[in-house]
Amino acid sequence: MQHCAVVVVVDRLGAGFLGPYGNTWLDTPGFNALASQSFLFEHVLTDSPRLETVYRSYWQGLHAMCPEVADAARSPLPLATRLATSGMRSMLVTDEQRIAGHPLAGGFASQVIIDPPEVAHPADDVEDTQTAALFAAAINQIQSVSEPSLIWLHSRGMDGPWDAPSDLRRRWADEDDPTPPDLIVPPEMRLAEGFDPDELLGFAHAYAGQVSVADMCVAALVDAVQESALAPETLVIFTSPRGYPLGEHLRVGPCDEALYGELLHVPLLVRMPDAQSRTCRNQALVQPADIYATLVDWLLAESDMQLPAAASLLPLVRLERETHRDRTCCLAAAQRAIRTPAWFLRRAMSEVDSAPQVELFAKPDDRWEVNDVAQRCADVAAILPGVLDDFERSAANGDWSNLPPLPELVVESPG
């Protein structure tokens, strides 16, 4: 039996803003419903805050630390090209020009590119938002599909204009909170000590309005999948390439792309058409390249042994396997980060001198990376940079076969 897949990607949507990931102040009924039908991955870390780099991971199965390969024969086939060689159609629906023009997007059999008009003020209704317009176009495509296909939807999400209706922003503010701002351009700044907390709260409420729009749109799209002719064969994947800091670690927006959880921790929900493993949660460490391997597995029934940085998630979803990987790594300019089951370490070049700055956080307890324990756990802080370097060297060589196993000290929880 041939399968279909719908992949929904909403940019700048951190996992911490969704009810299925523990958010209690922002109601997300659409995502809650999707999670009730899906297998949820708790610990998904993007490998880069750069959109084009994450998409290379999505569409080619390469980790962000892997260099570009000049020899096309040695490089994995782009996802859409690989599907085309097997006779399967693919469609890209997006409002992001960087994705439409991505070097790996050319293999899609068709593209629906939404070029939204400039936004000057919040929309009057959710239906008038740019996100709603994009999802409406995707729903039209889903309703017209009559053969096994991949439909890939990428929304600018919170990286685009914040045009949610003002009442959606006010919905999440308490009675004595200041009125949320009607800003359109997503805020981006480093916060100084003594910043105005009311201003930051307003940003959070405005962001929450955008999440509410995405929540409604995702709910409508999932309903369209369920009502489509190919519903019994259609896998739905929902994720985001990166989050959006809102004051954590004194940063708002992309800013300097500091590699902390608010930027790196993203949602991943996998909805099987037969409701297999729905409501299950998994603690595996997952990165974007795994989506490539998962789609190749689902759509082509191929297990790609040529992708050391990627592995299909379907054995986890089907409860055929419990383990996945024991480390994930991320990079951005002069920063590197590594997550193991028990620890998260961030290493960045100091702004004062050339010495690297190392921060260490215990996982999973310190969810928001508040308590730096690098000095108290100096043994772990001394080991993990070497593990990170080993990973990067393996990525550079395209060969993880000689990657040393993790020392027990960085695998077990400090508790």
Explain how this protein is built:
The protein has 415 residues and is an alpha/beta fold. The chain has two domains: 4-317, Alkaline Phosphatase, subunit A; 328-410, Arylsulfatase, C-terminal domain (2-Layer Sandwich), CATH 3.30.1120. It is built from eleven helices and 15 strands. It has helices spanning 29-36, 51-60, 79-85, 97-100, 130-144, 166-171, 197-227, 261-264, 289-300, 314-317, 378-397; strands at residues 4-10, 39-45, 89-94, 110-113, 149-155, 189-190, 234-239, 251-252, 265-266, 268-271, 281-286, 328-332, 335-339, 343-349, 356-362. The strands form three sheets. Strands 1, 2, 3, 4, 5, 7, 9, 10 and 11 form a nine-stranded mixed sheet that branches. A four-stranded antiparallel sheet has the order 12-13-14-15, with helices on one face. Helix 1 packs across helix 7, helix 2 packs parallel to helix 9 (289-300) and helix 5 runs parallel beside helix 7 (197-227). The radius of gyration is 21 Å and the shape is globular.
In short:
The chain is α/β, with parallel strands linked by helices. The chain has 11 helices and 15 strands. Helix 1 crosses helix 7 (197-227), helix 2 runs parallel beside helix 9 (289-300) and helix 5 runs parallel beside helix 7 (197-227).
- Assign the CATH topology of the largest domain: Alkaline Phosphatase, subunit A
Radius of gyration: 21 Å
From the coordinates shown, what is the CATH architecture of the largest domain?
3-Layer(aba) Sandwich
Name the helicity range.
Answer: 25-40%
Unreliable spans? none
**Looking at the structure, what is the overall shape?**
globular
